[in-house]
Amino acid sequence: MTPRTRSIAWITLFLYPFGAGAMAVNVFFASLIFSWVGLPVLSAAWSIVIGCVIGVPATWYFAKHIRRLMDVAEHRGSP
Q1: How many domains is the chain built from?
Q2: Stretch 27-52: mean pLDDT, rounded?
Q3: With contact defined as beta carbons under 8 Å apart, do 60 and 14 qualify?
Q4: Is the pLDDT of residue 73 over 90?
Q5: 2 in Cβ contact with 33 (< 8 Å)
Q6: pTM
Q7: What span, in angstroms and rounded, lies between the C-alpha atoms of 11 and 34?
Q8: Which domain does 73 fall in, by range?
Q9: How buried is 45 (Cβ within 10 angstroms: 0-12 exposed, 13-18 middle, 19+ buried)?
C-alpha cells in the first residue's frame, strides 16, 4: 500500500461518520419529496441504514477529492 493510498483510506475512515450521516439525511429528505407522488416516507431507522450503506462510496469519493486537493496544495507550496 502506497502512502497516498493509505492516506485516502485514513481520510475515508475519519470522514465516514460524517458521510454516512449526510447520506442518511439526504435519503430521509428524498423520501419526503417522493411522498408527494405517493411513495411511503422512510422511517429514521431505515434512512440511517441506507445512509450507512451509500455513505461508503460517497465518503471514498470525497476522500479522493480531499487527497487530490492536498496534493495540489503540496505541489504549489514547494519551491
Answers
A1: 1
A2: 96
A3: no
A4: no
A5: no
A6: 0.82
A7: 33
A8: 3-77
A9: exposed
